[in-house]
């Protein structure tokens, strides 16, 4: 099983991998820079080299880099969109140092412009970034499923499929993926508790199951369709432990990496990682 959690990147790559091993994880997620945005720390080549060696010796990966959550490719103001574009472009260049990583971002919020306009802005931005890159990056870029809070785009599988189609038709050789957040899809109205198989059938029909590359594994403080996005510890929320037992054993999910983003400290994550492993039949 590939399972881990979100870790602080303040100590660098090697420190994250060592922390992961210390809590029984073999994957981890981290913010590429301050989650509210701003400049990223310069990359330490020695740290990256030590990380790559340690990760391969300890079976760590794939690592999942998370874009700052303030990034809004669908913003109404050019300054907001330019920040999103420059940040993502810079993140993808930096991630070439750790080949085979994945990069997750929240598609964006249309802030009253309408979902269609938002989807166009997001796919335009992605196409420009890949175009400037000159080739397909070694990093797989993932769109995250969203709860539909405010004017968030990406609550429905149709919106994600639309962004993918509009981007890939222009960015040759690029293959986008999707990160399924269990809390977000539940809050977004997909009943993964009552009908996990049906939700995945629908994902397969609309997006294609092969696009699914990662699972953000979070319980939810809210009821189905609440459009809220408040993560809860595994088994302590409205999704519940039995649903997570089905999630980690589901044939279409079980080989994917599971990343916890629950309100836990390191000890709490260690216990949740053990819990998820214990659910595997
Ligand atoms: Zn996220």
Question: What does this protein structure show overall?
Answer:
The chain has nine helices and twelve strands. It has one domain (3-279): Divalent-metal-dependent TIM barrel enzymes (TIM Barrel), CATH 3.20.20. Helix content is 41%, strand content 15%. It has helices at residues 13-22, 45-58, 78-95, 115-133, 157-168, 182-188, 196-206, 241-249, 266-279, and strands at 3-6, 27-31, 64-66, 102-105, 108-109, 140-144, 152-153, 177-181, 212-217, 219-220, 231-232, 258-260. It is an alpha/beta fold. An eight-stranded parallel beta barrel has the order 1-2-3-4-6-8-9-12. A two-stranded antiparallel sheet has the order 5-7. A two-stranded antiparallel sheet has the order 10-11. Zinc ion binds next to loops.
Mean pLDDT: 96
Bound molecules: zinc ion
Q: Please identify the top-level CATH class.
A: Alpha Beta
Q: Might you state the CATH topology name?
A: TIM Barrel
CATH architecture: Alpha-Beta Barrel
Number of helices: 9
CATH superfamily: Divalent-metal-dependent TIM barrel enzymes
Order of helices and strands: EHEHEHEEHEEHEHHEEEHEH
Measured distance between first and last alpha carbons: 11 Å
